[in-house]
Structure to design on (298 residues):
């Protein structure tokens, strides 16, 4: 799935749109009960609605969740976590077999409801039009995210029985998430080891075990590794929140490790040719880094 930045770019969601949406939060919060009541009046007219909203408990849960979704439209926090959550709503609708047409039609109802509120509040004014424009964008973004699962469903060929396949995919997803968590903890432990090693190097300089010049170069090399691990940790956190994994973070770590080796090699009697080879490796990694980040931007 695209990142939030790509979605914002596609729907031309600017900082000003975000400000507009935030400014509407109080108004929308005030009307959330009226909204959910009209939303339900609307969706209860769909044919076979009791197939999906089968008992009081489900209806009560759905009402709460839809209300929460409505208010969050005006939070102004549209990050990776936000798109992951909305995508999940689409997955739930697909899983219960809700026709995509119902979601599209209901979103049209939500749009009309919001526009009417804006007209009641701001009259027919330029301010109302600007606000409506921003509401339009966030609702379109939500509809897009909620219907991704329907499009995936159309393309999917089921090999196993449908329900079993959902369970297998869900299990695989949770497993992948656990692996990511494991990676995160391992990185934290590794960084603690490197920090201890840094302390050891400082100690060695203090007791005169290694010279000041060599010690400083070694410390710089270790700091470089700590910085690269920090980058990797940030990339992993971003990934856990639903963003794309930045392969470049691994390259950063590799570059830092080789630079550290060069720093240490200059202190020892290492041959010039070895140092040049390490330099060549840094250069190649740098070119790969540039190519990847360039293609991601493009
Ligand atoms: C704009 C349209 C809609 C929005 C924003 C919306 C929002 C939501 C949200 C936020 C959830 C919870 C998802 C989760 O936590 O995994 C949900 C689930 C659900 N939705 Fe909708 N929904 C919409 C349309 C509909 C319609 C038209 C129906 C039925 C006619 C429906 C029936 C359900 C049901 C049965 C669930 C599962 C409830 C449960 O068991 O907890 N939704 N929806």
């Amino acid at each position: 799935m695209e990142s939030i930045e790509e979605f914002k770019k596609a729907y031309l969601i600017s900082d000003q749109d975000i400000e507009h949406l935030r400014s509407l939060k109080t108004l929308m919060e005030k009307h959330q009960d009226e909204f959910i009541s009209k939303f339900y009046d609307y969706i209860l007219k769909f044919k076979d609605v009791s197939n999906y909203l089968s008992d009081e408990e489900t209806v009560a849960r759905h009402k709460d969740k839809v209300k929460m979704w409505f208010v969050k439209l005006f939070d102004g926090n549209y990050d990776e976590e936000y798109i992951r959550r909305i995508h999940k709503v689409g997955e739930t609708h697909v899983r219960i077999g809700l026709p995509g047409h119902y979601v599209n039609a209901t979103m049209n109802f939500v749009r009309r409801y919001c526009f009417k509120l804006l007209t009641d509040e701001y009259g027919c004014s330029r301010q109302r039009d600007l606000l409506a424009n921003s509401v339009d964008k966030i609702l379109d973004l939500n509809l897009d995210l909620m219907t991704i699962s329907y499009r995936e469903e159309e393309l999917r060929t089921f090999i196993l029985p449908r329900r079993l396949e959902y369970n297998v995919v869900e299990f695989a997803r949770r497993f992948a998430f656990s692996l990511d968590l494991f990676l995160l903890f391992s990185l934290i432990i590794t960084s603690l080891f490197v920090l201890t090693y840094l302390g050891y190097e400082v100690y060695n300089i203090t007791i005169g075990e290694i010279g000041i010049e060599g010690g400083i170069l070694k410390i710089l090399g270790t700091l470089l590794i700590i910085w690269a691990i920090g980058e990797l940790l940030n990339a992993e956190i971003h990934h856990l929140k639903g963003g794309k994994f930045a392969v470049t973070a691994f390259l950063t770590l590799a570059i830092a490790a080789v630079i550290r080796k060069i720093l240490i090699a200059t202190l020892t009697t290492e041959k010039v040719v070895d140092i040049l080879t390490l330099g060549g490796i840094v250069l190649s990694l740098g070119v790969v880094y540039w190519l990847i980040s360039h293609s991601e931007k493009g």
User: Anything to note?
Assistant: Residues 13 and 137 are 7 Å apart (CA to CA). The two ends are 16 Å apart (CA to CA). The chain has a mean pLDDT of 89. Residues 43, 46, 49, 52-53, 58, 61-62, 65-66, 69, 88-89, 92-93, 96, 98, 102-103, 106-107, 110 surround protoporphyrin IX containing FE (CB under 6 Å).
